[in-house]
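User: Run a structure prediction on this.
Assistant: Running it now.
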Amino acid sequence: GSEDERGDTIALDGSGNVYITGTTSSSDYPTTPGAYDKSYGVSTANLAFVSKLNNNLSTLVASTILGGGYDDGLGHALDGCGNVYVTGYTGMADYPTTPGAYDETYNGSGDVFVSKFDSTLSFLFASTFLGGSGLDGGFSLALDRSGNILVTGRTEYSDYPTTSGAYDESYNG
């Protein structure tokens, strides 16, 4: 686009197509027909994006904006079916979530988001917030052999959700 972009992660699918996730502040960031979201939204905000280029980098195959404003797309992974999983940070309650997601409610100050798209970046299968009342952000994610999503990131408050029996269930400052 005509403003600032930052690519944070890159991955290749089985055909050598290149996926890039990052952040844009350009209202004219390139999206493709049928993209999940082609609108920029908040004019002064950063938005996450996911873009797919063919294996010789000559064609923008798929590209979508992601988020409601003040978002960073910081990590992604691909599954064997070509679905794209994205994580990052959002500072807005209008980040898109899907019915039945782990957490459909913005928790305040900034949350991790985890979203799942099809390979054409036109359909949002699932999307959730993940966080506590403070500033939280997802930096990277991976899929295990069972298809479970593993997310790494940061939190700044003691009410970040943990699971019983985890290595460390307490916030240590």
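The two ends are 39 Å apart (CA to CA).
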